[in-house]
């Protein structure tokens, strides 16, 4: 069993084998209690592009998050209001904006990481990534200088909330909603204060100058917090482990390595939609109220094992970031973070020393991935 399979099984011991088995039953399968499951990339893309399938109806992500985040936070919106909010948020994610955010927040932690690897230390990359992805989102939601403890605490809060969701979840229970609200209220409070301060050098201050209301800015901060932390933090250790396991050494095209590792790992393995109008998904007829489970991981795995020389056909293109109106708005930020960390790790030609999967999390991840620089190891061996 390869290490990626171990990660999936540790996160979802029952759902992972079930979802993977459904891929063998056909591109679109109706499963009682779960929904209409799609395992084919072209069909999934067609669903994502079609307004009959929404994120704000029964069984959709909106159903899960609206009681916690409120009704207007991108990931539970549709139609004109959604398009208008995305348009106003777009300037936050231009290449220049994300480059300055990432270099501003990560220069210190990356310098420290590089120094530790250079000294030959064994580093837990999973922990480092929780820290770094947490620090980026802390800055996005309006925290100024954050300590490592703050960034880790924020990450742990997010993980606790996101892990409340499982494949069978149709909604959160009252206790889960109370816990999630406590966490999101804290995030919202920080975001609201930064919005009020209105400093254009901060993301929240910029939201104000871009014309977002205080409630919209607060909602966007909550959405970024839920979607933008674990996704990035879980991916980078998986990328490094894949390179290690595949015997791939630095020197190739980093962009290609990252895209292929994103395909193979598919950090968010499933997307959900609610059917709003009678329609068809592939050959299966669906009616309003049905839930469509896009098994992105099945769609992407159909193209074979991790292989950085693989070209991605059009139907597959960046499906791991979604497609259509809800395509990941944080994509440029995610890539900037991933590249910044990967460049440091590749420069040190790191190898994996030990690893441990995270259990019962929503997004498969390493709890620990201990790495070391090969260069320092060779130096040590030469000295012995
Ligand atoms: C490797 C990292 C990431 C992956 C794989 C990823 C994946 C995705 C996917 C698949 C969707 C579409 C979901 C759907 O259509 O149901 C999405 C949407 C979204 N992502 Fe990301 N994401 C990543 C990083 C980020 C980051 C860093 C942010 C921070 C701002 C972010 C913010 C969002 C938001 C706000 C949405 C909702 C957009 C909308 O509904 O209009 N994501 N992401």
TrEMBL record:
PROSITE patterns the record matches: CYTOCHROME_P450
Domain of life: Bacteria
Similarity remark: Belongs to the cytochrome P450 family.
PANTHER family membership: CYTOCHROME P450 YJIB-RELATED, P450, PUTATIVE (EUROFUNG)-RELATED
Entry protein name: Cytochrome P450
Species of the source: Sphaerisporangium aureirubrum
């Amino acid at each position: 069993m390869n290490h990626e399979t171990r990660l999936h099984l540790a996160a979802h011991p029952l759902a992972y084998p079930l979802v993977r088995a459904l891929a063998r039953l056909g591109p679109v399968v109706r499963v009682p209690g779960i929904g209409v499951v799609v395992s084919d990339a072209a069909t999934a893309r067609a669903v994502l592009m079609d307004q009959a399938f929404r994120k704000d109806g029964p069984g959709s992500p909106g159903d899960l998050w609206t009681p916690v985040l409120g009704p207007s936070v991108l990931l539970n919106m549709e139609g004109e209001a959604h398009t208008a909010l995305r348009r106003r948020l777009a300037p936050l994610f231009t290449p220049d904006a994300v480059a300055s955010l990432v270099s501003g927040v990560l220069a210190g932690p990356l310098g420290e990481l590089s120094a530790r690897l250079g000294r030959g230390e064994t580093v837990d990359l999973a922990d480092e990534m929780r820290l770094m992805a947490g620090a980026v989102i802390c800055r996005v939601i309006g925290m100024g200088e954050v300590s490592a403890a703050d960034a880790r605490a924020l990450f742990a809060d997010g993980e606790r909330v996101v892990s409340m969701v499982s494949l069978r979840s149709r909604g959160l229970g009252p206790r889960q909603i109370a816990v999630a609200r406590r966490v999101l209220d804290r995030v919202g409070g920080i975001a609201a204060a930064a919005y009020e301060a209105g400093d254009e050098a901060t993301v929240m201050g910029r939201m104000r100058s871009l014309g977002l209301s205080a409630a919209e800015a607060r909602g966007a901060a909550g959405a970024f917090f839920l979607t933008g932390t674990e996704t990035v933090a879980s991916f980078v250790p998986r990328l490094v482990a894949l390179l290690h396991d595949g015997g791939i050494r630095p020197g190739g095209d980093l962009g290609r390595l990252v895209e292929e590792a994103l395909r193979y790992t598919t950090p968010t393995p499933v997307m959900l939609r609610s059917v709003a109008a009678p329609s068809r998904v592939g050959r299966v007829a669906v009616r309003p109220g049905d839930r469509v489970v896009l098994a992105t991981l099945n769609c992407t795995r159909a193209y074979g094992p991790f292989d950085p020389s693989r070209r991605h056909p059009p139907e597959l293109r960046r499906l791991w970031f979604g497609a259509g109106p809800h395509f990941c708005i944080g994509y440029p930020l995610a890539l900037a973070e991933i590249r910044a960390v990967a460049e440091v790790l590749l420069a040190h030609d790191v190898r994996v020393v030990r690893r441990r999967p995270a259990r019962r999390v929503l997004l498969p991840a390493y709890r620990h991935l201990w790495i070391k620089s090969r260069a320092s190891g060779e130096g040590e061996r030469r000295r012995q």
